[in-house]
Design a protein that fits this description.
Blueprint: E1 9-15, H1 20-27, E2 35-40, H2 47-53, E3 57-60, H3 69-83, E4 89-94, E5 97-99, H4 103-113, E6 117-126, H5 133-141, E7 147-149, E8 156-159, H6 160-166, H7 177-187, E9 191-202, H8 209-230, H9 239-262, H10 273-281, H11 287-296, H12 298-313
Parallel strand pairs: 1-2, 1-4, 2-3, 6-9
Antiparallel strand pairs: 4-8, 5-9, 6-8, 7-9
Helix pairs in contact: 7-8, 8-9, 8-12, 9-12, 10-11
Length: about 325
């Protein structure tokens, strides 16, 4: 087991106006990671000064170039390797997450004994799931199966050699950059793994319906762009998710309304498929409440799919969809 500060490991945190969440993030790794880079994307709350006071190297992202989390992570890991070129592993973490005690030891131990794996992640938990249904939805979303996986999230420990081999994240993706990176890693022969251990404690701070809606729109956009990039066989990356959003959030509503208006009011009964779907999904952890939001979420997801399709049609660069 690896203890104390490991010379093999560095950490990249990214954020903007995270305040005390960032302080908790950096404090959680102060005694275990010798080299930490924080990439700031235009904070106005003193985040940069706070990080510097904690002994962290800060990269100020050029905000004249369209911001993406992917670009922030890329600038972060490249700055980190400029400071410590012999690093073997990099832990990526969002600035609103604190790293769980013991995670870095477990992750490095796994990577040292599994050289075929490019990335390992664990369980991201929501810090305050009781504060809103939207926070609780995040916590359910992150309860993912353990074992080899197709993708990771934003919090992940990466093998430097694998990251360099595929060139890092795609700078231009406004969402879904981690699964897209994992597609390329797997195509290069690497594997991704999820451990059952707690990895990070996240503070979503979602208290309003509008925040949840925008976050879900972003998810739909990510599905569509992922399918556009890697939807061909055999990968079929996010094709099913894109199709599901389009069918439930666009095609079925148009079918119900069109049939009821043009044929007979009795066709409004087709809308019963939605509560039936809620009942089917209620068997999942979270019950009917989660089922309701999973079904409702198909409408903002469909909107995100349409936004991506519209942008592709007019060759416009996708604009960041933020929910905080």
């Amino acid at each position: 087991m690896i203890h104390a500060k490991s010379s093999k490991l560095g950490l990249v945190a990214i954020g903007r106006n995270e305040g005390e969440r960032l302080r908790a993030c950096l404090a959680s790794v102060r005694d275990t990671v010798p080299c930490v880079v924080y990439v700031d994307s235009g904070s106005t709350d003193g985040s940069v000064a706070m990080a510097q006071a904690m002994g962290v190297h800060v990269v100020n992202l050029d905000m004249t170039v369209p911001f993406t989390a992917a670009r922030a992570r890329n600038e972060g890991w490249r700055a980190l390797l400029a400071l410590a070129p012999d690093l073997q592993f990099i832990q990526f973490v969002d600035g609103d997450c604190a790293v769980a005690p013991g995670w870095l030891d477990q992750a490095q131990t796994f990577m040292n004994t599994h050289p075929e794996h490019a990335a390992v992640c664990g369980r991201r938990r929501e810090k305050f799931p009781e504060r809103s249904i939207y926070n609780r939805l995040c916590d359910w979303e992150w309860d993912t199966p353990v074992g080899d996986a197709l993708a990771c999230g934003g919090d992940v420990l990466m093998r430097v050699s694998a990251l360099k081999q595929v060139g890092g994240y795609r700078d231009d993706l406004i969402a879904g950059e981690e699964p897209e990176l994992c597609v390329r890693l797997r195509q290069a022969g690497w594997r991704i793994h999820r451990l059952g251990a707690d990895m990070t404690l996240h503070d979503a701070a979602m208290t309003r319906f509008g925040q949840w809606w925008r976050r879900t729109v972003r998810g739909g956009h990510a599905f569509a762009e992922g399918a556009w990039l890697h939807g061909a066989a055999p990968e079929r990356h996010w094709v099913k998710e894109t199709r599901r959003a389009a069918v439930w959030g666009l095609v079925l509503p148009l079918l119900v309304v069109g049939a009821a208006v043009c044929l007979s009011p009795g066709w409004w009964g087709l809308a019963a498929v939605y509560p039936l779907q809620v009942l089917r999904l209620a068997r999942m952890p979270g019950g009917g409440l989660r089922g309701f939001f999973l079904v409702l979420g198909k409408f903002p997801e469909a909107w995100g799919v349409l936004q991506f399709a519209w942008g592709r049609l007019w060759r416009k660069r996708s604009r960041l969809i933020e929910y905080k």
